Amino acid sequence: MAKGKIRAKIRRSQLYTFACGIKSGEAGPQLIEGPGCSRVVHCNQPHMHRKKPFMYRSNYISTTKYNFLTFLPKSLYEQFHRVANLYFLAAAILSLTPLSPFSAVSMIAPLAFVVGLSMAKEGLEDWKRFMQDMNVNSRKIQFHKDGGVFDNKQWQQVEVGDVVKVEKDNFFPADLLLLSSSYEDGICYVETMNLDGETNLKVKRAMEVTFSLDEDEAFKNFTGMIKCEDPNPSLYTFVGNLEYDRQTYALEPGQILLRDSKLRNTSYVYGVVIFTGFDTKVMQNSTKSPSKRSRIEKKMDYIIYVLFSLLLVISLISSLAFALKIRFQMPDWWYMRPDDTEDFYNPQEPLISGLSHLVTALILYGYLIPISLYVSIEVVKVLQASFINQDLLMYDDDTGIPAQARTSNLNEELGQVDTILSDKTGTLTCNQMDFLKCSIAGTAYGVRASDVERAAAQQMANDLEQEGTKSSASSNKSKKDIELETVVTSKDEKVHKTPIKFFSFEDGRMTEGNWRNEPNADIIMLFCRILAVCHTAIPELNEETGTYTYEAESPDEGAFLVAAREFGFEFYKRTQSSVFVRERYLASGPTEREYKILNLLEFTSKRKRMTVIVRDEDGQIILMCKGADSIIFDRLAKKGKLYLEDTTRHLNNYGEAGLRTLALAYRKLEESEYSAWNDEFQKAKTSIGPDRDIMLDKAAEMMEKDLVLVGATAVEDKLQKGVPQCIDKLAQAGVKLWVLTGDKMETAINIGSISILLQFNIRIYLVPQSKGALLHESNLMKAFFTCCRFACSLLREGMKQICITTIESDSKEEIKENILMQIRNGSQMIKLEKDPYAAFALIIDGKTLSYALEEDMKFLFLGLAVECASVICCRVSPKQKALVTRLVKEGTGRVTLGIGDGANDVGMIQEADIGIGISGVEGMQAVMASDFSVSQFRFLERLLVVHGHWCYKRISQMVCYFFYKNIAFGLTLFYFEAFTGFSGQSVYDDLYMILFNVVLTSMPVISLGVFEQDVSSDVCLEFPTLYQQGPRNLFFDWYRILGWMGNGLYSSLVIFFLNVIIFYDQSFRVEGQTTDMAILGTIMFTCIICAVNFQITLIMTHYTWIQHLLIWLSVLAWFLFLLVYGMLSPAYSKNVFHILTEALAPAPMYWTTTLLVTIACTLPYIAHMCLQRCFHPMDHHIIQEIKYLKKDEKDQVMWKREKTKAREKTKIGFTARVDAYIRNLRSKLNKKTHSLENKQHNPS
Fold first, then answer.
1. Transmembrane ranges (predicted)?
2. Across residues 311-334, what is the average pLDDT?
């Protein structure tokens, strides 16, 4: 509490100029009327909204597909939305009529089992979502009950008009109007990362008229009325008025606290609820939880259509033939009593007979359609999902969170991903800035390598080792170049040191006060003072450790203050007008210095710099400035550029290392100069009107000039562990990556660089929103482009720089025409590019994107984007994330994957074919809306490249096999009916038919879908190009599907005709009897069971004891069933009474025929596989052969060479950087070789 009181004394609003410099309400109330502005909120009177005309939505939210009332109808609709289930429903109904060739039980029981199991699985998965929703809805919040007393209630019970109290580090339960806070001037800090992805804290400020409402009892008699805009998805705007104490005050976005943002660095706030539940802005940006189906499942419907067409054709043939036989042959069949028949067999009415037989045939041949396919796939997918959940290599030890398949419907989609659309903050990064390097007075400090440098250097070394060289001279030269250009690591790196949060700097010249021995110690001291003074942070003493932590608006500021503390300049106190710094390593000993703050010009995305004007203890007025290097460099005095060249070189190096950079400068001011400027500045600050910001900008420009460059900082926005390696592996697998972030453009570019989305030789095609023409004519574009240069090392000698801007205009059509022209020019430029290694990146912000996503332009924009190596969309709203995802999904027709960690990513996650939620520290909104969840982005590599690859191949092979076995089985029924005069008679017993799909062939196919591995997980990661078998759909294209159908047709012909030929008039038993229909049907069924189960053993390439058990147990189960079924009473077994023991088993012909037919059925597949592996092997065939012969152990060089070849050509990731590096080395060596040869030929 003591710390809270100290902080509460600071009136933070007086530190700001641009954002908080004008008092709320001074501009007067806004006109709130007309469409879209009809909401009325009675403050502290929630009961007023429970009746008409209000009846606002409750605060209950749901991300489930079903509820208790809709589960049955919606899930039944989902099940019978499948063509096969719809057909079997019709067949089950018709089985109740005399026309059915089977009993009703044999048709209804399998359908009920299949549909019931699928519905139970859907219900279980949705129940898990419901429980997660309840965890959110059941969170507690303090609300004003009555008489100044606050009590707790659940989020879902919060109502419009409630006054709530939110405490530090808690989420806001609804959209609130800020009334007051623990700070006396009504400000609070809000983290909006869940909404816009930004990690820096936002300052919100209550209206001055409500400052006094700062304790519970103050709300005893509080009332007021808010008139404002209706619910809408705009996160950055708000229009409304507050009527309070007989006056009307204008409301601004800076006074609104949005649901799912978090209160930080503030003990508590009071607010009144404006929007609840699905009316809140974050929920307005969300979309309904969609019912997603995989591409394989959708294609299965088309295959079902093909099979249904086949079923209809053979049924029509059968019914036509039956009608002809009834009309012309039945009158001669005296034993059929043609003079006394039913309508179904009336020679006088052949049309009715034919139509009735059509119904019979449609039911009889229904086994062409695999009824158990869907339920088998459901079982397989659930088991696959359990393997994903239990994969220890996707388990995060730090958080204890495993990967989770929240739905199993999309497992195979993981193996077909073409484009990943990723959030940045919390997804790629871990929201931590580390001070790593700095440049002071032209000298670079900091020897520790960044994550990117270490990983890239290792990758380069590995690749060059594999690459080899032709001569020792060139080899030595290459190694020397590498040594010169790779990162230098600290000699003390192996020495264990206690890690310091936000500070990864290592350099003995700067730490422990050793900077005093440097030649420019006075400049270093000034550098550290700028870090310690030029900020807006508040210190907090950690009483346990005795050190200070800092509550800063941005993570950069926190890292700078920790760095200043470690260098001996500890910021420890702030008052209303001063900053206090404890300086430890001065010649006079440790000293506490006070710097009086005269003015603070805050950092904005437009200014790209922050300035503080202070008076030190000697009375000297000093301007301290930090900002984007291009902005600072343009404001340097002629005498202030002493270190410009060296600093520029260092910034270039830092940019290549993927570090975020800022330049530091200062200026000493005379008293008279400052006084004159301050008068002008105060006039601008206190002015009211639309020109206020322009006047403030001009005043700032007057002072922020003639600066003296001191140095630069380089901080590392720490990526989550393994992110660059994961992106590189996905790039090698041929997967494209787009980043959709709410962050500023500069931040997005930096992250693109350090995550290796942007390479050092990549070319940037920029589409910013502000006005500009040529690069050298626009200061803004200079600033931006220099930022790109330092982030991506873009400006190299001989390289083209491309920068396209949009115009500022009041005409929407003019803006659209300008953007359209630039998109076309950009596409043309890429087409005309002759360099095969050229890479382009498209970077676009939210405002420009809003035009690019309009109907008449979006496909042109998409065409340009897909031609670029990487795409980064910054400052985008949650709605835009979803729209971009939809555009990519629908425009390319490829599988998209959306991944994010916050509520602002929910729309993108739900719109993508596959949604991945990062289960991090920022709530569970993204996870609740996702299909899969992981705790770290790096686990996406294994989820896609290993599990995705396996699941795709397993499901593809499983489905193809299902159609094969059902065609092989179903067509034998057609052949037998044709053989018996189209009588509608089944050759198989009803119980055989039930058991075929449900028991006798289901377990082996499930084992194929669960355990099959073409290669091991390690090989999947070593040979990422194998992943492309999924996006290219090599295992489920029509060529392969029709091939398996043809194999089924061949097997059906062999099974039927071989058996008929062998047993037609051949004595079967010792006594000389021939086979009857029951025996022939049982022999044919035995052949089918053996053939299809032996076929699946040929498909499998990875065997476990479970697979062997299930396959051979299925075959054995048939004979055991036949034995037991035959032993039952003839009342139950009917024609198969003792058929195995008395008829089949004693007959050698039964066993030899089964063996002959089984071999004959599998011969074409064996021949096909032999020919393919010999003449047209696929990638996994080659790897399987290498592994089988253990060549990977015997010939390591060959194995490394194969791994190098087995990756997709990519222009992003470490691999692309290494390839470019090697090309540069070779180019240099070739030039030097030619130069030496020329000198030898021309010695003069």
1. 302-324, 355-377, 962-979, 991-1011, 1041-1064, 1076-1097, 1109-1128, 1148-1167
2. 82
